[in-house]
Amino acid sequence: MLDDPGYNGARGAFASVGATVRPVRVDSQGMDVDHGMAHYPHARLAYTAPSHQFPLCATLSLTRRLALLEWAESRQAWIFEDDYNSEFRYAARSLQALQGLDKHNRVIYAGTFSKMMYPEFRLGFLVVPGHLREQFATTKYFSDLCSGYLEQAVLARFIAEGHYASHVRRVRKPAMSVSWRWPPRLSAICRRK
């Protein structure tokens, strides 16, 4: 199951490995989990961007987050949480990531540093359940050998010394003030049902 409309890169990636991609409508509360479960009861994976859904800007509500987690546990299915833009949550109060709410190790969490650092900084990360780490590491090794060691080392130090957290706060403040000045039509598009 994938957000619809949603990120075509994810749709293409899943289709390229032979997955059957099933669209699940998105409204102002994010992926319509009940709709997905009703139409695709045998789905094995749900891909969603719950913090800042693309392209509608919806945030998956807490009720739907919990329903999605319950679905994954009851079906022994997976949730792929694409948190590509989580640092730029514009709501007054952000919701906890699905991965943070997951008590049954059913969420694979993906993030990137390219949005916060700069677009050419192509370094992302996965947080996977412990029993899948070796399998994911092996797949990563055989798919592209490595990510840039220098970039990883510099970023690790940047984070360890507290500079990343400071950078996030510094960048988020002006971005948030701009978001509240969007023209009314753009805001309406992002809130549409």
TrEMBL record:
Species name for this entry? Raoultella terrigena
Protein name in UniProt = HTH-type transcriptional regulatory protein gabR
Q: Which residues form the Aminotransferase class I/classII large domain?
A: 2-168
- A molecular function GO annotation: pyridoxal phosphate binding
> From what superkingdom does this record's organism come?
Bacteria
